[in-house]
Amino acid sequence: MTERTLPAGLHPDTLAVREAVERSQWGEHSEALYLTSSFVQPDAATAARRFANEEPGYTYSRTSNPTVSSFERRLAAMEGTEAAVATSTGMSAILLVAMTMLKAGDHIVASQSMFGSTIKLLGGEMARFGVSTSFVSQTDIGAWKAAMRPETRLLFAETPTNPLGDLCDIAALAELAHAHGALLAVDNSFASPVLQRPREFGADLIVHSGTKLLDGQGRAMAGAVCGPKALVEEKMGAFMRTAGLNVAPFNAWIMLKGMETLSLRVKAMSAGALEMAHWLEAHPKVARVHYAGLSTHAQHALAMRQQSGMGGGVLAFDVIGDTPEALRANAFAVIDSTRVCSITANLGDVKTTITHPASTSHGRLTEDQRQIAGIGQGLIRLSVGLEHLEDIKADLCRGLDNLS
Ligand SMILES: *Cc1c(COP(=O)(O)O)cnc(C)c1O
User: Fold this and answer.
1) Residue 392 domain boundaries
2) Cβ of 211 less than 6 Å from ligand 1
3) Which of 328, 335, 346, 381 has the greatest number of C-beta atoms within 10 Å?
4) For ligand 1, atom 8: residue with the closest CA
5) Per-residue pLDDT tens for 361-390?
6) Among candidate residues 238, 259, 280, the one where a domain is terminated
7) Do 151 and 286 sit in the same domain of this protein?
8) pLDDT (tens digit, 9 = 90+) per residue, 321-369?
């Protein structure tokens, strides 16, 4: 069906609902779901032209699919980039960046407190292909500078980080990368374009785990890379067609529906996390709260500037305890006493989730890597959802109040 073209200059909240709505001939109001592996061609000559990329048209869903391209166009519009490519998971989006932007002999500088699998992928798997990675403290721009080498091609940052909520200064890293002829990639899964649009601060590539906030309701996995057409469509598009890291059309459709409520959810969760952070700070059995939305946080000013004045929905706190064993036992006691929060590694969900990073998301790191990342045995991560906050406070008190 021929669509009216949207006017230019729409606000992100409008784009989240209206951008790239694909409709079939029937004019359904909701985005169409094209659940098909291949597309029938009108004749052999058209098929030949389409396979040769001489004429637009869908051929095979590993190459492209209308529902998937809706998701890509909507996310690119929200991030303010020229293009986006959707992938099966957040990790395959990061793999796509590494496989298309790097070759043997290249070097990456990355923050040391990233998502555990990202550290394993960039620091471990890529080494087998001759790509080396230096991990540095993400808050220390001097450390990033010192790690740069002539063969550095990529700076990779995740901000805010999981689970401590530390920030990278995107504008400073973009300047550093570009001065060395390197690219800056930013994992924006935690903030989402509602809080932070890394492109505005100079990032070249923006990576998403759509599994987290874009879906927001724990239903499906997906990922994406956003950036300029020359990198995303030409380099990554060609690789995708060969390598098949594609998202399923159904999952892309889930992402489209999730993005419609993204802004409302992220703002509500962020307000909830700020209230929980204040409340936890005042609790006698909590040793420390890590949340950039608190004015006492070392990077509060940067957080407000870079994240639209909000801290995001994820916070972490250390329970009291004298030894690593006591800390772990106390953290486990708090987690096991909850009856509302979900004990699960997902985050950015409408359901509040609670985890022990040292034994789950960061469990595959060595004790040394965990120490450097600041992930102690007493640390608990809370991703605040949309339940009533009084119920979440009561849920945490069940365990916290009895700690010694
Ligand atoms: C979960 C996550 C990933 C990986 O995404 P998947 O969809 O689980 O593959 C990458 N980066 C961050 C910041 C994440 O939280």
Assistant:
1) 262-400
2) yes
3) 381
4) 90
5) 888 778 887 887 788 999 999 999 999 999
6) 259
7) no
8) 999 999 999 999 999 999 999 999 888 999 999 999 999 988 877 888 7
